[in-house]
Amino acid sequence: MKITHTKFRLKALLISLVLLSGIVCSVAFTEKTKPVEQAKYYCLENVKAFSAQLDTFQFLIDSAATQQQLLNRFIQSRIIFKKFEFILEYLDNNRYPFFNGANAVEMEYGYDPNIKPEGLQVIESELMNDNLDFARLTQLTRQLKYRTLAFYLILQRAELHDTYIFEAIRFHLIRIETLSLVSFDSPDLRLNINEIKTSLSALQTILSYYKNSSNNVAFNSINQLFNSSQQYLKNKTFLTLDRLYFIKNYLQPITQKTIHFQQLLQVKNLENTGNVFRAVNIQANNIYNADFINTKFFAADRYYSNNPLLSEIGKKLFYDKRFSADNKMSCATCHQPDKAFTDGLPTSITNKPDIFQKRNTPTLLNVAFQAAYFYDLRAVTLETQVDQVITNKEEFNHDYTNIIQHLKKDTMYVRLFNEAFPTYKEEAISITTINTCIADFERKFIFLNAPFDKYMRGQTNKIDAAVKRGFNLFMGKAQCGSCHFAPTFFGTVPPFYGVTESEVLGLTKTFDTIHPILDDDIGRFSIFEIPDFKFSIKTSTVRNAAITAPYMHHGGFKTLEEVVEFYEQGGGAGMKLDIPNQTLQDKRLHLTKQEKSDLVSFMKSLTDTSGIYKLKPDF
Asked: Which range has the worst mean pLDDT, 106-110, 143-147, 241-245?
């Protein structure tokens, strides 16, 4: 719903803020004050400070201040925001994008043409224009002030618990490692170094409220790490920060010690109470752990039973050619295990000889780490993805009625389905059970034992120097990590990993930087006729990219070197093609030959096919 910002409503909220401020400030903290109350007070005070920064920022706008004056105040505002961001994102995640979301159309809760991007990232983009639009800046600032005052009231009335505080801290540490290091939310000014320091300092302060005589040693250990991490960042810049070193020596230890500290305090997570189901296993102390993301979060039915029979049936169905009308195609026809579950072709075959589809066959390795499927995101689960392949006239060109009839004539399938779904009785073989089994089998395609994973988990200390440099480039200068998010390197967005994104790259038909021609695949626009979605394509993973050529959704690029060079050019817009809605920055990256080589080295270090033989047919 679009919110109308009026002086009356702002004034009313401001009066409320002043009154509530007096109430909060009248509370005298004593030694018996609970840590959660101190944490709440700290956050409320910083929300007020952020509101005051916005007041000053608005005054400068009204005064037609210089661009530099506005930037200086904006930078200070962002720093204050980072002091309470952790609790805002955790408590009010639905409205977080209005504070600090990407400058792009959001579709998570449906599309509303009246809602436009707003918040700090949008203001930053406006401030970088040569000619400032003061009316637009005023509108954005007033919107942000309104939302800030509203959040103050939400937080003031919220009944916080220690669980919420520690979970918010954990999610924020994930945000720092995956998004802040890339400067995801400050893509133009690249303010991430000082903002990470501020975030860490805020988390350190919150944890200090929980210090007592029984956990003094554990807290001092964390405290020392926080101090040294901020000291390490002191003289670093966006380009000079060694992100890999910072993660391994500071962020990972801080995370591990914070989890241990929480355990000493006997503060449980919500998962332990059975009240929540989410993508992230918050008890995992490393985002590169194999159990960090729960793939069942993305299932059509998150609570379907863990039954090995499901994947056993799914495996048989995956290789069964009776799924196609002509009995010539199975899932494995295009997703071949010997080719990392791709087919090695530029675009997929059809059920007609020498006729090909428009899009490339993506790998199914780690396919479960997504919240949407197909390059245009038209299927929201693996289960619904199966539907569309079966009924596609260019693929299986079949229907479930006939498929079910075939399966019911097969005594093996009848026995297996009845055993796997005993309560379904005569409906044991159905659309739902067929799709569930295939999807469950595909959720077993988890390959997270690449050399880089083992290094990040501390299972080896050996990693090539080129890989280290490549990771730092991926998460820094090259900006790959701002779309291919760690650790899945899909477009599945941290820190909650509940949404999969698409991007407008301005992709060319072939790799041609001299005479580029825009590819005509309109992507998501074919599903949602929203102008910003024209040419928007799902962000695929770079895991196993070394063995899944050719590349891009049309298979038009033959090598990783060509892919890197396309991004070096700033995509299609960087090559002067007319793509006004391109989400990829159109500026050249200015990567050296060595840096391009290092990027490729890093991507190759994400290769893992160990155990793939278990997914091959054994019948």
From this structure: 106-110
- Give Rg (Cα) of the chain: 26
What six digits make up the tokens of 422? Answer: 């005993």
One domain for residues 405 and 541: no
Residue-wise pLDDT for 27-50, tens only, equals 445 557 899 999 999 999 999 999
Q: Give residue 1's pLDDT.
A: 35
At residue 336, φ and ψ (nearest 5 deg) are -95, 125
The answer to whether 128 and 121 have CB atoms below 8 angstroms apart is no
- Total-model pTM: 0.93
CATH of the domain at 208: 1.20.1420.20
Residue 396 phi, psi dihedral angles, 5° rounding? -75, -30
Q: Please say if the pLDDT value at position 363 is more than 50.
A: yes
Give the whole-angstrom CA distance, residue 250 versus residue 415. Answer: 54
Other CB atoms within 10 A of residue 144 CB: 26
**Which of 44, 86, 52 shows the shortest CA–CA distance to 180?**
86
- Torsion sign over Cα 254, 260, 263, 264: negative
Q: Write the secondary structure of 139-198 as one string of H (helix), E (strand) and C (coil).
A: HHHHHHHHHHHHHHHHHHHCCCCHHHHHHHHHHHHHHHHHCHHHCCCCCCCCCHHHHHHH
What does pLDDT average to over the chain? 93
CB-CB contact of 296 with 443 (8 Å): yes
The pLDDT tens digits for 412-428 are 999 999 999 999 999 99
Q: At what angle do helices 431-442 and 308-318 cross, to 10 degrees?
A: 90
Q: Cβ(94)–Cβ(75) under 8 Å?
A: no
- Residues 501-536 as b/e (b if ≥16 CB within 10 A, e otherwise) read bbbbbbbbebbeeeebeebebebbbeebeeebbbbb
Q: Domain end: 418, 447, 476, which one?
A: 447
Tell me how many domains the chain contains. Answer: 3
Query: Do both 388 and 481 map to the same domain?
Result: no
CA angle (330 as vertex; 326, 331 as ends), nearest 5: 145
Domain endpoint, select from 420, 447, 474: 447
Judge whether 617 lies within some domain.
Answer: no
Model confidence pLDDT, tens digit, residues 152-200 = 999 999 999 999 999 999 999 999 999 999 999 999 999 999 999 999 9
d(CA 552, CA 549): 9
Residue with tokens 């998460």: 475
Q: How far apart are CA 400 and CA 466, in angstroms?
A: 50
Question: Using CB atoms within 10 A of its CB, is residue 158 exposed (0-12), middle (13-18) or buried (19+)?
Answer: middle
Is the pLDDT confidence value at 13 over 70? no
